[in-house]
Fold:
Amino acid sequence: MKQSRREFVRIFFMASQAAIASRFLPASLLAASAPEPKPAGGLNFLIFGDWGRNGEADQTEVAAQMAKAAKEIGAQFIISVGDNFYEYGVASVTDSQWQTSFENVYRDPALQIPWQVILGNHDYRGNCDAQIAYGQTHPRWKIPARYYVRSQPVDAATTADFFYLDTNPLLKSYHLDARMGPEIRAQDVPKQLAWFKTALAASPAQWKMVIGHHPIYSGGEHGDTRELVENILPLLQQHKVQAYFNGHDHDLQHLLAGEVNLFCSGAGSSVRPTRRTAHTKFSQSRSGFTTVALSADKMEIRMIDKQGTLLYTTTVPRISA
Structure:
């Protein structure tokens, strides 16, 4: 009995001392002994845009933090929301920018996962077909067409459909812009809109995400895009799309249009000023990217800057209350 009581006192004393010490130890030292967090499952990915600057203007710093985040959440893929190469896209599949702006910058093993890509206005100043063709021999680069849809399983009972749009030809001003080249005027806008309406209506997915280069609403330099407000937003609302992701404005934003969440993640390299609007929930002019963790019932968003600082986090429920 005495031995048991002695052992109890010893254990109690050690536990008490550990509790007291923990009040004075730096949090970083305490955290160092804890096991590393493991991905929670579901569908985890990164999303960013407006990045291809030969490793300059914060691009390399953002890439390093993307690699850390990809490891942390167990990212399965990366979405690029366009303006992949500045200032004039790429000329061909052998353009040197494939190495200087892409392969050599995003070379960390954690980033060697599929990149789901769309085109931006700067890509239209070059050879868009070359970006599509590059993916035929480089499996990391995924852009099968100028617009397309991909279904991704979240769990055994939940699917997410991602609708990748080419918003460039929807902007009427681009058809008059001499910098855009003849490709922009060759695109069939009614055909794309008809495809989008049909694809949305046919989707049985519990999660619906739409990706476009241009913002619908924005507090950034370019502001709202009238053509998307008129032609795209009503479809998102009608079909209960939970989120629209875009770039074009070089910043990080979260806006709300009714029940549709609008996320701007166009801060992959240089940034520009942004402001708050009637739709704004968050807005900051910082180079960075967005992580998404998707489960059956919620989507967790984190916006992270080039130094790894968590700037903003929010949770979007699958079904609004």
Observations:
- The CA atoms of residues 22 and 29 lie 10 Å apart.
- The longest helix spans residues 2-22.
- The longest strand covers residues 148-155.
